[in-house]
From TrEMBL:
It comes from Colletotrichum nymphaeae SA-01. The lineage of its organism: Eukaryota, Fungi, Dikarya, Ascomycota, Pezizomycotina. Keywords: Signal. The keyword Signal applies. Residues 44-358 form the Pyrroloquinoline quinone-dependent pyranose dehydrogenase beta-propeller domain. InterPro entries: 6-blade_b-propeller_TolB-like, Beta-prop_PDH, Quinoprot_gluc/sorb_DH_b-prop. This is Pyrroloquinoline quinone-dependent pyranose dehydrogenase beta-propeller domain-containing protein. The keyword Signal applies. It holds the Pfam family TrAA12. Residues 1-28 form the signal peptide.
Length: 367
């Protein structure tokens, strides 16, 4: 069973893959959950079914299960909700009890939980906090602790958190750009458009917060807005999905409808440093091609190749493809990937797309 979230409809959905051998009677069983959607319902791919399990939320952004099986929801501009679930099989989930465990309008996206289930992490636009957490009682400690600070932006204010399962105590934090084309992202010292790993496990009891732009381990920069971050569960490889730029022009020709591509990027493994780690992925000077139809001065470029907006002697299509890290996979322009999840054996990944333009549709893609 997988769970996904949409932030525009104020709801949570449970999704379930139906194996070919599953009895059809399972679909017909009665479910105590009788919630009905008040909007045009999503369309499930063949072999999948889903059910609405919660509504009445403000702006649900991120979710995770705690060690007791409860669902924790970052409700942006509100706080963190604790949903105790009743599972009657398949997609038949219902909320037995809902409570706010952290009342904080600052919290807007990131959430993580320690392996022992006793420490909860969440992010604002500027900081990462931790709380003592008691899953059995569904409560947090009276005081929080600031672990990481100095991440404030004028745009792209979400800070995705991922606590590594392969490297205990390492917290990954993704920070996007401050604007559509953010020239500050060309300087590492600003901390803009970067993915960093922080060893929070080694922090002493009285240690002050870590400074995002100057501390932590650089996993990648030149990443416009990598909202989805995942660790492949078998090898420990770190992957992100990136939301690329809008309203681009190349050599004064409008290319924004079908370019640039959104990206799936690889950042190596936390267990070692290698050529796949700490590289520059090109933004804001280089972008990936999605469609070459009507693309000016395309030469031999194909989907996934990197291009410069206004080629010059110092930054052109050749340098974009030789000096910067290319995406491992390119997605349709403006589909806005928001998350990536792997199956336990690491053989498949699922990417959710929000869609940032009126001609794009929200979807989940299976890789």
């Amino acid at each position: 069973m997988y769970v996904t979230i949409t932030n525009s409809m104020n709801l949570l959905l449970s999704l379930h893959f139906l194996a070919a051998t599953q009895p059809s009677v399972a679909l017909a069983q009665e479910c105590r959950n009788t919630l009905k959607a008040t909007y045009t319902s999503p369309i499930a791919a063949g072999g999948w079914t889903y059910r609405l399990i919660a509504n009445g939320l403000t702006r649900p952004r991120s979710i995770l299960f705690d060690n007791q099986g409860a669902l924790l929801v970052v409700d942006a501009n509100s706080g963190i909700k604790h949903l105790k679930l009743t599972d009657d099989g398949g997609t038949c989930l219902s909320v037995a009890e809902k409570r706010t465990i952290i009342d904080s309008p600052e919290l807007n996206h990131g959430i993580a939980l320690s392996p022992d289930g006793k420490t909860l992490y969440a992010s604002t636009a500027d900081k990462v906090y931790s709380w003592a957490y008691n899953g059995s009682a569904a409560i947090v400690g009276d005081r929080n602790r600031t672990l990481i600070s100095n991440m404030s932006n004028t745009d792209h204010t979400t800070r995705t958190l991922l606590l590594s399962s392969k490297s205990p105590g390492i917290l990954l934090v993704s920070r996007g750009s401050a604007s559509n084309i953010d020239e500050a992202a060309t300087r590492q010292s600003t901390g803009h458009s970067q993915l960093r790993a922080f060893d929070i496990g080694s922090l002493g009891e009285n240690s002050g917060p870590l400074n995002f732009p100057t501390e932590g381990r650089m996993l990648g920069w030149g990443l416009r807005n990598s909202v989805g971050v995942a660790e492949e569960p078998v090898t420990g490889g770190v992957w992100t999905v990136e939301n690329s730029a809008d309203q681009l022009r190349r050599n004064n020709v409008d290319i924004h409808t079908d370019n640039p591509a959104e990206e799936l990027n690889f950042h190596g493994h936390l267990s070692d440093s290698n050529k796949d780690q700490g590289g520059n992925y090109g933004y804001p000077g280089c972008f990936a091609v999605w469609s070459t139809e009507g693309f000016p001065d395309k030469g031999n470029m194909t989907t996934g190749d990197q291009f410069s907006l206004n080629p010059s002697r110092t930054l052109n299509d050749t340098t974009c493809n030789s000096a910067y890290v290319p995406p491992r996979l390119s997605f349709q322009a403006h589909t806005a990937p928001l998350d990536i999840k792997f199956t336990p054996d690491g053989s498949e990944a699922f990417v959710t797309f929000h869609g940032s333009c009126e001609w794009c549709q929200s979807s989940i893609v299976h890789i």
